Amino acid sequence: MQRSLTLQIATFGPDDYETIVSGIKSFPVHKLAIICYDHDKSKAEDFAKKIKGVLGLSINLYVVNEENVVRDTLERVNEILIHSKEFHQILVNISSGEKLLGCAALSSSFVNGIKAFGMDRTKKYPILMPVLKLSYNEIVSEAKIRILKTIEEAGGELESLEELEQASGLGKPLLSYHVQGGKDSKGLASLGLLDVERKERGKISVSITTLGKLLINNHNPITTSNNNYNTDANNII
What we know:
The protein is α/β, with parallel strands linked by helices. It contains nine helices and nine strands.
């Protein structure tokens, strides 16, 4: 019988990292991915070395920039998921670190439909967050994915629906429906996957958002080069 493998993703803060240890004690873990700010990297490396020394646990470290914490965290979690297909369960521990980092990690779990948890005020008992029954990958239709990919392949932005029509091969009424939505369906704009700018004479330009880029990458995973991968903790893995 195949062993069930669990990956824990954890945010890191130098003042409350013991909650990461509590998460390891509370749930199974076969690999740990730590997300931290760039200015906390050395402390996160020291912490990871201690955990590996005691538990022999495989650990990867992922660095995000505080000024772009939401975007960077979404991207890092997406990278982790792309390279973690062998795991049957993935948990996100948002209890350690600065609040915005935890919020960004929680948003990432919602986007991807994975379980997240924090620790109570005693830092001993986990509190599970609600899981969205539908992730973005399940909400967004194949037609919408096709539109997003078309815009991304065109450089991330198109000046009009006419340009999008030519690039995608879809009719303008259908494009308008998928971009702006209708009575029975949210459009790509309201889902936060496209930015729409209204111009003169009712024309609109469209540009793909960071969330939109992450969605199509996760929908059709591509191999990320080592240059794009945060491998700062290779020496402790």
